[in-house]
Write a sequence for this structure.
């Protein structure tokens, strides 16, 4: 199974800040990586797929980068509504696997 | 628009069975690969199973293999998860999720989830 290691597990930032979340795979997954945002009591919401492609309707302050084994989610100009838990997920192979999550507090 | 609505969750004793349903709208299951993903309360996400758009090929997480069965009914556009021999560690929210049409396995839409609690 492909293991996804996400860091940090939590962070605190202020409105207008930029933050980065990293996700590392234990094997090459090329660009088959998504980022999801999940708010309490809600299902995950797709932000980025194919490592860097912004899902339709997602604000452009969310930026995904990386390939191979190392990936980054950058959130620029943090807004209050960005307070959530963020997960990376690889879909290069089965079983699909997720990072442990990063809780972002604003 | 794409929407999935799960149902069938509840409280069940260990060893018993439960069947979850996921009614899809805005797209057809016959042309789409579909996943089930679960999340224990306050924990992370765990993939459970996938059914390919041909309806015949399915794959399961090792933790549920032999106990859970994913299936679908294209006449009602409904996805199912039959869960047998339930264990306490199967407790959690169960989400059906659609595979992003522009990827092979990636997820683009999730249902709202249904809660399964396995407890004596």
């Amino acid at each position: 199974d492909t293991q996804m290691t996400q860091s940090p597990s939590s962070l605190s930032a202020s409105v207008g800040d930029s933050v980065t979340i990293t996700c590392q795979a234990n094997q090459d997954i090329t660009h088959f990586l998504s980022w999801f945002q999940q708010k309490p009591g809600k299902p995950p919401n797709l932000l980025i797929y194919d490592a860097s492609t912004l899902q339709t309707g997602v604000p452009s302050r969310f930026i995904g980068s990386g390939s191979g084994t190392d990936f980054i989610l950058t959130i620029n100009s943090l807004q209050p509504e960005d307070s959530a838990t963020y997960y990376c997920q690889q879909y290069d192979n089965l079983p699909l696997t997720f990072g442990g999550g990063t809780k972002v507090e604003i | 628009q794409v929407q999935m609505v799960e149902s069938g969750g509840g409280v069940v004793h260990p060893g018993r069975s439960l069947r979850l349903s996921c009614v899809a709208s805005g797209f057809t299951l016959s042309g789409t690969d579909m996943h089930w993903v679960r999340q224990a309360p306050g924990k992370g996400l765990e993939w459970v199973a996938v059914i390919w758009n041909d309806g015949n090929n399915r794959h399961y997480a090792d933790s549920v293999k032999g106990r859970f069965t994913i299936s679908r009914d294209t006449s009602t556009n409904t996805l199912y998860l039959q869960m047998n021999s339930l264990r306490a560690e199967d407790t959690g929210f169960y989400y059906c999720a659609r595979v992003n049409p522009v990827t092979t396995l990636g997820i683009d839409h999730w249902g709202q989830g249904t809660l399964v609690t396995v407890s004596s």
Notes: The interface with chain A takes residues 35, 37, 44-47, 50, 59, 61-62, 95, 100, 102-113 of chain B (CB under 8 Å).
